[in-house]
Amino acid sequence: MNLQLSSKQSSATFNCHLCPSTSIGSAQEYFCHINNHLKNHETVNCVFQGCSFQTNIYGTYKSHRSRKHTPYSLKDFKVGIINTSGAEHLADGDVDNSARCGECDVDSDSDIETETEELHLFKTIELKLGSLLLKLENYFHVPRTAIDELLAELHYWIGSASVPISNEAIEETLRNHNVSVDQTVIKELTAALSSCNPLLKSIAKDGPLATAHKRRKYYKEKFDIVDPVEYILDSKTKQTFQYIPVLKTLEQLLKKKDILNKVVESHSDQQSVHGEYRCYQDGCHFKNNVFLSGEELRLSLYLYIDDFEICNPLGTPRKKHKLCGVYWILGNLLPVCQSS
Questions:
Q1: If 87 and its partner were Cys, which of 12, 53, 116, 201 is the partner (CB 3.0–4.6 Å)?
Q2: Per the confidence metrics, is the pTM higher than 0.85?
Q3: What does the H/E/C string look like for 178-219?
């Protein structure tokens, strides 16, 4: 949209209160300049007189300006921002249209960025909750049925049961600010707050973490779980064994930068002290092995085996309930890291 500006408006220039930039040609260019500071997460104070608002979030600043300072005239800016050479002749009702024309693109970009930030925050909270539930199931061995019951109760108490408390809190806040609002509006505010709660959305009936089946699917998508593969040893006696793919596990393990750095560090620290045996790399078999002791980094695995009894932990592992487990650890880690 093209608007013709009067000479008295076009002669006004702006000074940035965050950097040495001066003589910015229009309000539109000035706010674009302010937005660049916000994109760098710099704290920006509101540029209008009598307002102490400040933020370092791009979308929040745009929303505040739209709600509190629209429309505005050049005389509404704080002292020192407007160069007085052209602005001193402005009447109180002269609105700087240059600040409003051409801002459609800026505002649309801001809206998109704000929505992206909100979506990112929602996904982050959802991911943290999923990680917590995964720990409950696998680290603390909480049954899935117990977690289902916990989430159902949590959804009720945070959602439906807390509605009266939320209504009272909103009503009291509005009353403290001398704002009179109909009860219908307060109920709508409460419902809106409840509907946008990422925790409630995640554990609702149609949420991704509501049931054990949905959580299992969510874990596989978000946490790169390596599932075991069942192989049949004898179909007649129904003897099988479970194999957790080594290559996939290694891939997930080496995605962790701290572990990868330890592997590289161990490879560069293969110099052994004569007569001192710290690990297998100090032995003659390793040193004489061209494949393992070469300059190129090779991954090595320690394999070990253990029989155990699952029905009687104190009994000898030799009866029909005996299981045989084959384990491995990454041999490229420093000895101090291998026990953990």
A1: 12
A2: no
A3: CCCCCHHHHHHHHHHHHHCCHHHHHHCCCCCCCCHHHHHHHH
